Every structure is written in C-alpha cells, then in structure tokens.
Structures
1.
Amino acid sequence: MNVGTLYGIVVVIGAILALFAYMRNRGTGTVVIGFTLMEIVIMAIIGVINGVLGTPNAMLGRLFMTFSGSYGFLAFAAICGGFYISGPLCAYIIRKPGAATIAETMNGVAQVLSGNPNGVMVLGAGFLQGFMSDLAFAFYGYKRWTLGVVALSGALAPLLQQIPEVYFFGVGDMGLGYNLLALAIRMVSGAVYAIVLVRPIARGLAKAGVLRGTAIADEEGKTRLAGQVA
Amino acid sequence: MARTTAFQFRAGDSIFHRLDPLTKFAWVLTISFLAFGAYIAWVQIIITAIVLITALVFAKLSPREILRGTWLFLIACVSFFFIQTLTLPGSTEILRILDKPIYMESADYALASALRIYTIILGSLVFVRATDPRELAIALVTQMRVPYRIAYAFFIALRIVPTIEEEIKIIRSAQAVRGVDRQRGLMGRIRETKRYAMPLLVGALRKASTMVMSMESRGFGAYPQRTFVEAPQMGAGARVLCVVMLCCVLGWYTALAFGFVHSFYVFAPS
C-alpha cells in the first residue's frame, strides 16, 4: 500500500463517519439549528483569538521542521493540538451542530489575516478540522458532553486536515509508516490538548459570566442553584 | 499615545486601498497558492518582488512600516535560511565554510523556503493594513452571500484583535500590582501565556457581549436580509485582475502537475 492509498482510505473513513453522524441525527431535527447572535460572536471571538495565537505556534512549528530535518513534520505534529482547540471548545460551550465547524473556519481566516506562514492552506485545514471535531459530538446526538467525547473531538480533528498539509509540505514521499505515525501523533496531540484545555476554559468562562445564553452557562447556573461545585 | 499594532487597518488613498476587499483577499490567496506551489528559489524571488512592489508602490507602505510589521518573522526567516543551508543534504558543492560543504540544492531550497514564509506574512500585512474590516464584512454579505449575522460577528472579532496587545499590557500591569512577577525563559513565557489567556478571553468576550446587547437592542438580526448604504463593488478592472490571478494559479499548478516545472523536495528521498 502506498501513501496515496492510505489517504484515500482516510478520506473514505471520514466520509463514512460523516454519513454515520448524519444518519444518527437525521430523525432528531438537530442537523441544522440556528445560532443566536451571542453564540455566533462567541464562536468568532474564540476562533479568531485561537487563530491569532496560532500564528506564533505555526512559527514554532516551522522552527521544529527546520531544526529536526525529516523528523520536523513529526515534531510539529506534537504541538498541532493547539490549533484544534477552538472547535471542541465552541462545541462544548454552545452545544449545537456546526459550532466547531464555524469556529475553526473563522480560526482559519484569522490565521491567514495574521500572517500564518502556512498561508492559504490553513483556510481549508480549519474547515476540515472543525467539521471532523463536530462529528464526534454528532455521534452522540449532541447530548453527551463527557471528557471522552471532548477528547474524541480533538482526536478526530486532524483526520482529514492532514491531507492538504501532506501535499504542501511534500511529506507524501516519506513513506507509509512516517505518514501514519504523523497522523497518530496529531490525533493524540488533539485529544490531549482537548482534555487539558477545553473543560477548564469553558467552565472558567461560564463562571466569569461572559457566556450568557449558552448551554454551558445554563448548566453552570443549574449547578450553582443545586449547590454543587462544577 | 498608545503604540498601534502593525497588523491593523490604516485608512489610505493608495490603489490597493481603493480595490474592493474581496479582490484583495483573492490576491492574498493567490500569493499564498503560488508561494506554496514552488520550492525553487528563482520563483520565490519573483513572487517576493511582486509582493514587495505591491506593498511599497500600490499600497504605499513605507519600508519602515514593513520592517516594523515583519522584523520578527524576518529574523526567523533569515535563521531558517542559514540553518537549512548548513544542515540539508545536497550533491553540488558550491563552497566550504569552516570545512563544512555548502550545497547548491540545499541553498536553493533554503532560500525558497525562507522567502515563501516571508512572502506569505508580508502579503497578509499588506491586506490587513489596506482593508477596512467593516468593508470586508459588508463585501462578504453582499458579494459572497454570507449570512450577515455571521459576517458581523466576524467583524466584531476582528475589531477586538488589534486591542489584544494593549489588553495583555493591562493584564500584566494588573498582575504586577498584585505581586506577580514577570517570568524569563521559554518555559516562563509559556506559563505567562497560560496566565494571560483566561483574562484575555474573558475581557474580549465581555466587550463582545456588551456590543451584542447594544446591537440587539437596536433590532440587529430582526430581519433575514439587510441593506447597506455603501457596499463595496467589484469593478471591471478588479474582475479582470481576479481572472488573471485565477489563471496564474491554475496555470502554475497545471505546469507542476504535468512536470513542465520541476518542483523538488530535498527532504524526500529520490
């Protein structure tokens, strides 16, 4: 099997997962839900701030690639989780279909505008990683918000997103094992970043009272009323 | 007077300022596509020259402004060039430095790689400096048919970005008053970033929340469509420019695909 076949299989897996998520939510009427203005603004702010902060992260990635030679792409994969945060975070806060996709797409635009050295590639990458992040929550009908689902959301983000990078960075010629390892590292990185950052940030923001009208703010309010500590 | 961020819109009367936002965005995308499709130094030199000419002549940015906005990236790019030239493998030796051979292939790749990063960053700087975020939001609604609530939310977020630097200074001062010392070194900087991230996010969301309340109280979002008094239009010249840019990208990638232009990667085993 060559690298082209590998990524062909990855695309098919992505499509099957998307189809499965769609079938799972088809009868529930949750495929498309309108967002309030505040929710859209939250997605935009988180997406844009993560995007702007992602530019120094991308420079660090270039540094890794420069210093580590052929292993640079693998070293970069380890810090990629930082780019995937806005999707799971917005989905966890807003809890509506499409939140991760919109947030990550805005993240991509913000990265292009703030001079990300990976250029236009981050636009497509943003959409793909957000779309895959959304699927993790869609598998559970946007009803389960455990740490495991958040981790799955972070882990799925790079599944399709790695494909354009492989082309643009020219690592397709590095062999099957290299590409599989890069994908595995990215998925682990995405899951770890999501586990470590998503819930503490979302809870912190909800406690600060800046997420009014969102699902997590409602949950936080109920928790306080019940006298529990989140 | 507070120091303004380099990556921030400044009103002007240059040719680039007068172009509609979507044509300018198409220009950034074209530069990015062309720069990413070439690992050859001479191609990158031409692209860099085009972007520099656009910045200096068409967008009327001064060399000082360009340097102020990109000096950090410039240092990084120069470092990348030297490191890659010294470390990458090659076959055609051109000179020796301290008994270490320097190869033509590695120097060519390193120069292309460094220029590519700089070109993309400079392209973004030119776009951001010459494009009013409000006009961009309106163009997204009127020309790209993006729902206006999403376009305006993005506009709000873009308006907050230039204030981030100032916000970080305020947070730093507030923490210093409470006895939190600044940290040195890479790990210290990472810990500092963690400490600033939450207050920064809370501050940005609080500001946005106030804006949203104000907009909703004025009836924003009440209707599915929205009209604008002054919407940017893509003129005939801009349309021609977009077609030319599209042809350039398609032509370049077709040439690459059919092997008319040789794109090689030093890292990859042949």
2.
Amino acid sequence: MTTRVVFAVVISIALMVVDQRQHHLEAVRSVLSVLLYPLDFIVNLPQSTSHWLSETFSTREQLQEQNRSLRKENLLLQVRQQKLASLETENQRLRDLLDSSFKIGDRVLVAELVAVDLDPFRQQVLINKGSSSGVYNGQPVLDANAVMGQVIHISRLTATVLLITDARHALPVQVNRNGLRSIALGTGHINELELPNLPNNSDIQVGDLLVTSGLGGRFPTGYPVAEVISVTREPGQPFATVKARPKAHLERAREALLVWTLSPMATLESNEPATAGKDDPEASGSREPRP
Amino acid sequence: MTLTPRRGGGIILISFLLALLLTVLPLPEWARIYRPQWYTLVLIYWATASPQRVGVGVGWLSGIIIDVLTGTLLGQHALALSLIAYITHKVHQRLRLFPIWQQSLTVLVLLLLERVLQLWVMGAVGQPVPGISFWIAPLVGTLLWPWIYIILRDLRRKFRVS
C-alpha cells in the first residue's frame, strides 16, 4: 500500500508538470474525454430536453412573434451591412494604396455551450464542437458581442474554452479610440479584466472600448473585447490601475462562435502554449499610438 | 482474500458514477461554492467499507477522471485522492468503530486535506488563491456524511457487497 501511494503521488506530480509545461498529454486527455462523453451527455440532458420541449411545444403566436422580431432585426442588420460593404472596399483600396496587407476574412461556426460545471476556480466552458468539426487548439471563440476566449483542450465531440477572464489568460488589446496597446489579463473574476503596466500619463479613459490588436498572432484583429470601467492614477505609483469589463456575456452565454482566420498565419501558430500572450514583449507597456 | 467471491462491484461503480455526475451537474452561480466533494466522500466510504477493493489505485483513477471531466491540471485531483485513499485505508478499522459524529470529524479532516492539496497545486502553478468560499465545501460534505454513510451502508448490505 505504501509503495503504491508513493508511486501514485510521483506519477501525479509528473503528470502535472508535463501537463503544465508541455502539450504531450493532450492526446491522453482527449481520449479520456471521449470515453467520458456519456457523462457530459447525461448531465446536459435536462437542459437539452427543456430546450427541445420549449421549441417543440411553443405556440403559433410565440413563433410568429419571434419570426417578426427576427425579420425586423435582420432588416436592420442588412442595412448596416450595406454600409459595411462599401466601407470595407474603401478600406481595402486605401490599404492597397499604402501597400499594407489586409485580412482576407473569417469563417465562423456556431457551437452550443454544454451545461456542465467545470472546475469552479477556473474560468472555462465546454462547447459541443470538437476535432470532428475542425476545431483546433488555441482557436479564438467569440459570442455575439465580443471575444470570449480560446480553445485549450479538444476531444472528438467537445472542446474546452478558456475564458478571457481566467487568471491564466492574457490577451493583447488596443484602445479603439487611439490605438494604445496593452494586454488584458484575466483576474479570475467573471466580469473583470486588468490592464497592467500602463503609465499614469497614458491616454486611457473610462468608457474606452478595447479591441483585439492581433499582436499575439492568435486572435484576429479588431474584435471588441472589453470596456474600461475604472482608471485609478496614484501619483506615487509608476502605473495606473486600469480595470475593464468584458463585452461578452461570459456568465450567461448559450452559444459561441468559433473563428477561423483565413490566413496562413493562424494555422502555423496554433500549436503554441495557451498563455503565449503573457510574455509577448512587444505589446506590454508600449504606449505610443500606432502610426 | 482472492478465494472469497467478489460481489457488488456494480454498486461501487454506480456510486462513483453518480458522484461524478453530481460533480459536474450545472448549478446556479451562487450555489456552486456549496457543492460538496462528492467523489471524496464516496471514496472515503468505500475505502472504509471495502478496503480490499477500493484503495490507492481506485482513488488515483477517479482523480484522473475528475481532472479530465472538470478541466483541471491532469493529476491535480489524482494526487489528492490517492493520498486520501491511503490515509483512509490506514485508519479504516478505527473509522468503522467510531460513532457517526466522530466519523464526521475524521471525514472533515480528510476533506480539508483534499482542499489543502488542491490549494498547494494551485499555488504551484500560479493560479490565484481562492477566497474563503473555497473552504465551504468540506463543511457541507461533513454535514452530508451521516446521510451518505447510511445510504451507502444500506445499499452495501442490500447488495451484499463484499
């Protein structure tokens, strides 16, 4: 018994070290999660059944009402889209004039969140699309409003998404108003991000929109991330304390969008560790606006 | 030991599966901190009642399964649960004779130990240390222990798990 427990402890510690530093155990994890998929399925059953029931037994009036509102929304979005198309071509033309590259476009896939509670001390969610749908490690995940996080574990039918508010997550961002670059660190609280290393005199205000800067090479450029909710400037401190609230509805999202950036860069970098943004030297603390 | 026929392995398996289901069952946000460590409680019971079948190996395996299921570091729960299985195995004869309140106290110590080991791993990998709510689950587990003990004991007697 004693030798066995020593053996178990040593193996556990070795596993943890390997799992933390390298990515060799992804295969083991994904095989095990396929085996454990029935458990996830059973736990998710009440929610999927109630979903199905409410869809099947909704009244005609409800459906008509929903249809009407969706039509209206669609119309509004189409109007906005018209303007966007012309703006996009104009943007492309200007970029062509400047000889700079432009992103070709993104492909998205809608995934549903599986109603399974993961470790309460980490900000993670499970989605119902996995490697069989082409999901890859490090893939950006959005909801309808903003960036949610990135994929960290994949199995055949499911994938685990690390949310941007997890304490292990860091996301290169820039202020939409003036291009000031920073890194949004997760705090472990579901509705708070932190922007470290911003000098006291940096131009950032409450209400500023933060968008992805694309510097880590993992997230596509220009997606909204968060809104600055407080800027505290202590004269004695070298850096301002800047807090932001994620734009994505992280705690009540039901659906997520998986994004494929259609450029060769994204697939090349998909094998890097999840916290690559954290030691990205280029982005941290730089304060001059982009030329 | 190998000569006696082994019965009721199914019951042990089912109780572990139920504990796993309860572990990942979605709860409202405010209730999540009160979720007891179901798997630890079930492990302690079976390691006391049937120590020749449930020991360090089962503890380690269930820990790995929980790690995969809840997305923690591979080995985080496995480490804690194999140690708890070991300690329970060491004291199982005393634990069987204890009155139920004394058992509950022992279980509290074991549940707290599980939490401490988790905390140690979290600290080692640089996760932020959770607040006071982290320590509520062992207390809930201690309060639930008498019921879990009685339910599992009746099941064990009914199905004559050896």
3.
Amino acid sequence: MSPFNISWKNLWSKPLNAALNILLIAFGTGILTVLLLASTQIEDKLEKNSKDIDLVVGAKGSPLQLILSSIYYIDFPTGNIPMKEAKALMRNPFVKRAVPLALGDNYNGVRIVGTDSNYISLYGLKIQSGRFWQADLEATIGANVAKAQNLKVGDTFLGGHGLTEMKDEHKEHAYQVVGILTPQHNVTDNLILTNISSVWKMHGDEGEEHPDQNNNNATDHDKDREFTSLLIQYRSPMAVAMFPQMVNQTTTMQAASPAQESTRLFSLIGIGVDTLQWFALLIMLIAAVSVFVNLYNSLKERAYDLAIMRTLGASKSKLFFIIILEGLILTLIGTFIGIALGHGILQWIGSYQESSQARINGILFIKEEFYLLAAGLLIGIIAAIIPAVQAYRSNISKILAKN
Amino acid sequence: MISIQSVSHQYAPGQVLKFADWQVDNGEQWLLLGQSGSGKTTLLHILTGLLNPTGGNIKINGTSLYQLSSKKLDEFRGQHIGIIFQKPHLIKSLNITENLLLAQSFAGLPTSKKRIEEVLDSLAMLAKKNAYPQELSQGQLQRVTIARAVLNKPALLIADEPTSSLDDGNAAAVLALLKEQSELNRATLVVATHDKRVKDAFTLTYHLT
C-alpha cells in the first residue's frame, strides 16, 4: 500500500466531500483559463492585424469605430471620404504607402473589400491557387472564406448590400473568384478582396439606385467618387507627431492610430477581465478553505486511524506526506478538470461567435497554463499543511489511551 | 526478551507511576494484571515505544527502545512488536486485505498476499479478505486485528484488554487464538487485563498496584 493509495482511498471514502472540493477548484481554474486564453488571443489578434499600419484616415466620427471597421472589419464604417481629398493625402511626403478601402458589401456575412495592389504588399499576401484580382468584378478570397463558403477558382457569386446580411443582392453584377490566398493567420483570411471600381460599380456607377442604410457607400457620381478609408504607413517616425494633427485640423477627415485605439479598447475590456479575475481568485480562495476544512475535519475523525498507522510502523513524516498528498490530489484533479473545462468552454463560445474575424480558438495551449497548474499545486500544499503538521505532531499515546 | 529497569513515568506534576523491574524471556506468555487507573495502558505504551517514560530503561530483544530515533523506533515497532487494542480498529476506507498490506508496507517489509492469506486462514477469516471493516462483527474484527498484529511475525505480541468488550464465548475464543498465534509465530505474549475470565489461562503474572 503506497501512501498515494492510502490517500486516494481515504478521499473517495467520502465522495461528496471530494467532489465538492474538486468542483470548486475546477470552477476557479476554468474561469482563469478562459480569461487567460481569451485575452491572449484577443491581444494577439489586435496586434497581428494592425502590425504594419500606422494610421487610418476616414470620415469624422468615433476613432475606435474607424479602427474597428477598417482594420478588424468588425464595426460599421464611420462614413465616406471624398476621393479628391484622399488622393491629396496619399501624395503627402510623410506617407510611404497609402491603401484605399471601399467597404459596403458582403457575401453571406463575409465582407467584400475594394482596394488596390498596395493592400497585397501591406499585408504580405500570397496566393494559394489562381491569381490576384485585376479587372472589375474579379475577386481573390481568403483561405477561410474558400473553406467556409465552399468557393473555388472560377466560381461566381453575388454580393449583397450592407456588411452583415444578404439583402438587396446586386443581381446585375456577379463576382468571379480568380484566386485564393494562402492562410495568413490574420483578418485577410476572412475577407473577399476586389478592386475599388467593382465596389463603385455595385453602388450606382451604372445608375443603380438603392437606399443607403449604413451611410457607407453613398451613391456616387463619376466626378466625386468616395473611399471608405485609407490605411497609411509613414515614411519616417517624425510623421507620428505631425501627420494626424494635420489631417484632423486641415481636412474634413479624421485620423486614428490603431496602436492607440487598440490600447484603449483593451483597457476597456481589461476592466471586465480584471473583475472576472478577482472573482476567479475568490473562488480559488474558497476552494482552498474548503480543502482545508475538509482535511482538518477528517483529521479529527481519523486521529485514531493515524495513531494505528503509527503503531504499525508508519513514521511521523509518512503521515505528514499522506495528508499533504490528499490536498494535492484534490487540487490537481480540480486544476486539470478546470483547464480542460476552460478550453472546452472557449471552443464552444468560439463555435457560436458570429464574426469569424475575432473567433476564439479553444484548442490553443499556452505556457501560462503551467502557472495555473503550479498554483493548483501550491493551493493543495497550503490547504493541507496545517492538518499535516497536526498529524505529524499528534501524541499517539494520548489518542490510543482515550479510546 | 523484555527487560524493564527502574522505570517510572510522571504523567502530571507531582504524580509519578513507578513500575517494578520485570524480566520476560523468549516465548513466555504473561498476564499483566491491574485495576483501571493502575497504569496498565501506560506501561504497555512504554513497552511498545509509544510513550517515552520520564525515567528508567527498557530493552526489547536487546535494543534500548528510547535510544532509537523517532523514525527507527516506528520501524522497530512495525517489525518486532504486534499490538492488539481493546477495541478492534481497522482503517475504514480499506478492505481487510488492504488493511493487512498496510501493516506490511508501514513496517518497511515486502508485501506478500500469500502471507496475508496464510494468516487469515489460520484465523478462519480468509472468506472475508475482500470485505470492508463495517461489514464485519466485533468478534470478526478482533480476529482481523490479531491477524494484523502477528502478520509480520513479531517477536513480541502485546494485547491491551483484548476481551473486555466481548461476551464469554468470544472472549475465550480470542484468548485461545492469541495463545495459539503467539505459539505459531514464536512470539512472546503479554496480555494486559482486569478481566477475571482470563486469569486462569496464564501462569506468569505481573501485578500492578
């Protein structure tokens, strides 16, 4: 009979107590796992998608909204900017590269992005099959789009007006898939890319008229065409101080920095994360107390058992070890279940998430999870140490004489 | 085998129990007689290395008990002394075989299911080897604790009031088993009791006053 066997059998002689302790620890660890994985992934996604973009210029409105719509493709655009003004900015000496975006359509919820070839070099896009878009109504699609929408090179599809739902289909113009991108592990995996004039064509270049609910691509006339926004890369770090101010003060447009806005966004989410974190830590604390109370109470009932073990030749340190082991078994099982639970919950949440751009993955493992495991071990030892010391110190002669 | 010399124990300030010197030879069967409160249990705890007396010297098989380290003393007890208590006490979460395996592994001896079955068989308890303690009667439990005490073939078998909670039939049976088992395992036997039913079975007695 190894000490582990003795501890194990003793724990499961009271299955309800053991289960309650494991449940509490699993719950606390589960929440911490979810928080850890989700915040790591969100931070990672925010960073990856805005990697080489220094500034976004769009219509005046919320800067956060502008960033969300033009970099993460989550929110609605703030409006449109006149092409003439945008073109002037693109020629500015501070600007190394400027990529125009025209948004406003979708295919089954996948956003159709009108842009030019600068977009390819900005994101470092590569082709998996076919080629990049060139002529009007040619589309190159992201790897996830090809898989999810079951589109191949040569297929055609109709765009719908708006950013999320397929209503008011543009029946006159069908796009043709000319290429599929290799997986980039950023937002472009979930986009349909085409040229800007295709998007214009959908929206009235050829006289098509329809109500404009989202105030994105207004009906244009040949002379004052519009973009949704510009993605800008600076030529020199000096631009950081001058360029955004210049845009905001001298044009009708606004400039928003992805880095600043992402930080702001994350600090907004962060408050919620912090609260949940404290909540989870509170649960872990309750779990630790519960393990302690469980071991402490059972120690009173088992005093005679332990004394008998001593008469059979078990040393004081062996009894100490047996009690510590009981704490460890409870918290380790709880921690493992909690981590598994956290991954499961995240995967489940991910499968229900609408926007594929921000989807969270539950099968990802990160090294911080080892800290959770270590924390579980520590809680087990801390909760068991007082009962274990008592078992170590108990006066067996007194216990045996009392009976 | 057992030798105690000028042993005394102070269990409270000003209250000292003194024990007459005692010499026990190998294979002898002794009765330790005394009223409740006369120090029977105290002497048994001193003999089994559970209670360090405030004075005197105890030798078992030539080993001075209280000069061993705490860990060595526990091990010595597990290997050389078998103890049977008044109330049979087994670990509730373990079955009979596991309880006996515990006695082997705690004593630092290799575990042997064969030896366990042999001992259970000699006590007519083999059929219950997979039962849990709460499924057994008091008499059956006492037999398992005897099995546990003799399992490691101890040199010394000590029983503290082994019959006091049993009826006449069971008391006689347990006593017979103790004598039989100590002979079978070549162990010296010391039975502490104030039970009059036991007296006639022994010729050697040590009186506590």
